[in-house]
Amino acid sequence: MHIILTGTGLVGAIALDAMLNDEAIDKITIVSRKPVPQAEGQAKVTVIVQKDLAVYSDEILEKLKGAHGCIWTAGPPLMAVTRQEYEYAHIELPVIAAKIFATLNDKFNFVYVSHDGCHDARAVWIFDVKARAEERLFQLHHDTSKRLTIKTKGGIEEEEALPSLVLYCIRPALIDYSQHEAIKPWLKPLPLAKKWTNGVILPLYRFLGLTSILGSSEELGQAMKDLVICDGQDVDVAGASPEGRCMGAVGMRNWTKERDDKMKDMTVYKQQEATAAA
């Protein structure tokens, strides 16, 4: 199975680590603005260095053809760009990519990394950006009944659903990667705000048992990887969104606990078991 990955930050590193350790995925193509040291020496990984994630040449599309899905983690932090650039990167680019990638296969899973609670905290601008991105993306989902209620001020223009496109949103908040040794060599030096979060906030949340917005990087990686390779089913665990297409920290934790039962009827795992038996 061929999977596309965009983004090389913390969440991208988590996603890549999860996919490298799954035998169901035999090909990973990373579309990145720069080289990916984590991918070096990995036989099943190809890196396409592409400065503009809105434009895909025929040559690149040929390399991506037949892919089963994409995990979209790309997007700069707000402090690195202007507000206009942030909105473009986190809303317009994934929408453009989803439309293009939907042509790569008869059924294509697009997993967008959003933020837990983004629809409930829209007064905070960066949360509103993620909520707007979800609203736009779910306009494209093949099943129009899954479209989110549009709460964007002024609404958005309704779009025609894409028959091949299957959408999921993963909504992490505070990500605890303190025990995830495999990804630590590939992470950039942390800015002061992140050092404060990792050194003070995360330990405090763990101590107090405040797990509603705190999840482990392993849970996040498992959920992203499972959704991108699945057959497009609704997610039916406690903590998933009512329409069955999105998971926050609680949903990811429950998914990790129940995934063996949830995944057992999926085509990809049936194929694995048949191959193992042969």
UniProtKB/TrEMBL annotation:
Record has Signal as a keyword: yes
Organism expressing this protein natively: Tolypocladium ophioglossoides (strain CBS 100239)
Name of the protein described by the UniProt record: NAD(P)-binding domain-containing protein
InterPro entries on file: NAD(P)-bd_dom_sf (IPR036291)
Keywords: Signal
Signal peptide start and end residues: 1-15
Keyword match Signal: yes
PANTHER family, alphabetized: NAD(P)-BINDING DOMAIN-CONTAINING PROTEIN, OXIDOREDUCTASE HTATIP2
